[in-house]
Structures
1.
Amino acid sequence: MPDFVHTVRFMTSAADEQRETILQIATRMFAALGYDGTSLQQIAEAAGFDVAAVTSLLGSKRDLYLTIMERAHEADRAAIEAVMARFAPLSPADAPKMIHALADDYLDFCLSNPQIPALWAHRSLFDAQDITDLERRYVWPLHAQIHKSIQPALEAGHIDDAPDFRYVLWTMIWCVEGFCCGDVLDDEGNRLGPDDQQARIDFRRYLHLLLDRLLTPPQKTS
């Protein structure tokens, strides 16, 4: 007869595996179809469970979505804070380098985890309108953290203070998420997705050029 502790651990492990399976499938479905376009029934069928089993493991569709968005945020936050830690303590002169590093790492992160920018892209199209506070809870604090870190560089003139830095940051995010969730056309009109290596090289070069133009203060003339 198996001992009680071993049985409980096995049951917990099996339940954790089932939760992870459901979360991964639901993440892909929400990323592809959006929250409003995905039903709990679809998730359950794709995961090989019935709706009751999904609900008992992870709660309602709303609960499932909130768990997924929190996981997406934690992955985003870890990637951003890892870059900022490399430059800590940040000198004003190094702030533009940190912004470029953030752009590079965010692009790599989105290319490796395409479902995460897709989840946020759906929200920008007013998906899940009844869940209103995710941006304020998750996105705004990260933006505020970055903005606070580069404020001395703005004041010292190492970063151009003419453009609103909020929009500099959003421009970088819009460009990266647009590229990772969409495609570009080559010289003959063929669609190139984010998996195309040359498209990645060209986009990364463009992204850094764009940031240079936005961040570099204008030359003073005598």
2.
Amino acid sequence: MSYPLVILLCVGLLQQTARAVPMDKLADSKTCGDSECSYVLSMATALDDFIAPDCRFINIRKGQMVYVYSKLTAEEGAGVFWSGSVYSERYVDQMGIIGYFPATMVKETQKFMEDTVKIPTTDMDFHCY
């Protein structure tokens, strides 16, 4: 790889980071499978369509499989929003995009992680890029 190409890539990454828009925090803590929230907690099936209201969220379609990575912890103790990514052969363009969705829009079908950790959310959890 040539140096000018590396420099252009670095500048592009810096510009993407500079465009991050802070959004309101949805919760002060979250439940994850590990301290980085990199393990899938569970699989869920979408019960209905959900259209993302802003860039923190993902669109899900009824019947779509959703990988759940974290569950936000509301002050009342019940998780209102979960974080995950969708999987579907029909909506391949959405695969790999992680975002929030209402917990009530999905039904957990398989749990992978019994042992979970509760960690505080950070402002970066709710930035839009």
3.
Amino acid sequence: MDSDLGRLLYDYLLKMGMSEGLASDLNFVLLLVVVLVLAFLLDLVVWKVLRAISIRLARRTKNNYDNFLVAHKVPRSVAHIFPLLFLFEFLPVVFVDFDYAGGIALKIVKILFVLQTLAVFRRFFKSTKDYLKILPKFKDKPIASYTQVFMIFAWIVGMLTIFVIVTETSIWKFFATLGAASAVVLLIFKDSILGFVASIQVTINDMVRIGDWITFDKYGADGDVIEITLATVKVQNFDKTITTIPTYALISDSFKNWRGMQVSGGRRIKRALIISQKSIRFLTQEDVEALKKIQLVADYLSQRSEQITTYNRDNGINKELLINGRNLTNFGVFRKYVTNYLEKHSAINKKMTLMVRQLEPTPQGIPLEIYVFSADKRWENYEYVMADIFDHLLAALPYFSLEIFELPMYVGGKK
């Protein structure tokens, strides 16, 4: 049938008196032009039909997925497949007298068909990725990693198919040859394999999401995760620079994810005042009366003074020396003042840990650590709240006769 159709013009040209060689060549050229024009027209018609259908569906449906398919030209890529199928069927008719050239032409068409199919898959996965990224459920998931994995598998299958088409060999023979070169293949795709495994572990263990604030000292990253792919994780630092981290580094190295703080009720403030030990002393009765003018500790001083006086009197304590019996210290009263101050501070989350503690003395002084949580977690507001608290506490120290430790200055070899 193919030979009869392919020689239809050939027979007609012979009847017109042309030589066999010229008739054969002209028959081939004319048939090739006709088939290519028909393939082009088929491509155009199918594209027009698919575009009309896809646009109509996109307008009628409430789901935005079809809009992404149209935006990424998936129907256009699908339309290109039909002319290739047409050529695959009719090229044997065109090359009826040229078997060798016809075989090469068919191989080219088959390869183009495989590449076009891969293009359809690529556009489809890209549309799916962009669509899922706008859904709240998948907004912080590494969708790009999964689409890249699927495309890698698609390309592997595509390249194997092209190899079989070009070499006309068995796929099983190819796999046998590939097994001998597996070490080289693993070396070439090492990063992709490690990234694939890492992407799965990161997702399953929920280690990192898009939008998380992470700190990765090894790579100088300190900012928000903006993209997670098969091979890399992109972090936009707070100075607006971009740091690229290998995906597998997230499971092989240590990094800090601030998501726990961001989803909690507050952001931790953990900072200490280093109090000079020389300024710490017992309080006399006159000191206590003077400190009662400070409203935040007035009730505390009245209650504690009464308890201490009763204890010392009942136990016959000699109070000629302040060290005897129970006493108040300026450091202890200041610690109570700081606690009361923080409990009444509007920017502190009272439902989370609120603690003022004395740490182990150091050669520089005694650290008084404030451990609380700012209700406002935004960086600039958090810094303002922390500065506001310590501004006040530093200014309050002289009222309790306390001093911050400072290194002595030496001028000309003297203090």
4.
Amino acid sequence: MANKLKFKYSKKLLSNTLTYKFSMTLNLAVTAFCVILITLYIIGNYQNFQDENQQWILTVLSYVAIFNSLFSIVLLVETAIKLFTEKHQIKNIINMIALFCSAVFCIFCTGTSNIIGYISGGIR
């Protein structure tokens, strides 16, 4: 009986790991940063920012969106594995939907910022 009480709390739940929570929070923060950069670019068009600043915003948006789309895809694979190995299926399905939307949004941001940067570069 002493062994049963001794090892009662030795099992950990995989869904509550600090690394996974930090990764999901980082993904949300970087996605919000992409939205802020898009908003800054739109405001810059109306406030007549300099062309170099607008180009810099597009470049940063492109790199951040590439990082976040790759990060979202890796987390999506991890969440898919967790979906089949853990009990918390509804939470994992909601996380998968959020990660898929984040990946699609960031891929769209990457493409759009590269197209706008190419067009605004002009003919050389």
